[in-house]
């Protein structure tokens, strides 16, 4: 019960309210959590696949490309020998990218709106469907098979992306930040080169337009400390904490989506959460990870 107690003592940090949605950012010293409450009647909701040669694109790029008001990362995807392929089911407006023919946790978008179900996607091949795992809340209750799990997948804290539906029909998005640290002695030359290349403009301003090749070792040390050893530690949520949190927000149904370095929340014109690479890719770096797909909320055309 101690782990769940922090849910009710989060300190109010920021609140943005408009006619279509409400955004909150809450912190309590250890946790930084972003909450968006959306009235789905005011949005067109879609699943959007990345557009690039390797089927990966950052959330900010996707959001700008399709003019989204709100966007989050979607399903899990592969980054090994099957790189950039969806790990689970993905169907977009009747086009199947991958279907796993068995009952599973799904987000379904059809003419009736968005729903969260444990179902076989083969029954929804004409709609838009994306899988996550696990179902966090079902019929306002936490599934017993989650509450009894004690493996690392369920008990370890990570950055999280979750989507839920309240009893009144409003959609809840939760993004929990997690700061992945890094031992400076483990950083490779390839990672240093990638970092300098990616942050070329920032470094040029910081060091008076100095060529990256002329940065001194002392300056490089400060750069690496700033990127990999930030002050303070923001701890994400375990699945067992996330399900209770979604339930506390009034969700009757909720699902866990891809998390870790993928967890990204775009609102209106920017990414609002601090993103960090995790053990899978770019560990400890403050970067926007390109993902395979996104769930987006767009204002209807007049």
UniProtKB/TrEMBL annotation:
Task: Name the InterPro entries for this protein.
Answer: NAGPA
Please give one Pfam family short name: NAGPA
Alphabetized PROSITE patterns for the sequence: PROKAR_LIPOPROTEIN (PS51257)
Domain Phosphodiester glycosidase residues, every copy: 67-197, 235-297
| Sequence intervals crossing the membrane | none
Among PANTHER family, the record links this protein to: N-ACETYLGLUCOSAMINE-1-PHOSPHODIESTER ALPHA-N-ACETYLGLUCOSAMINIDASE (PTHR40446)
What is the name of the protein in this document?
Phosphodiester glycosidase domain-containing protein
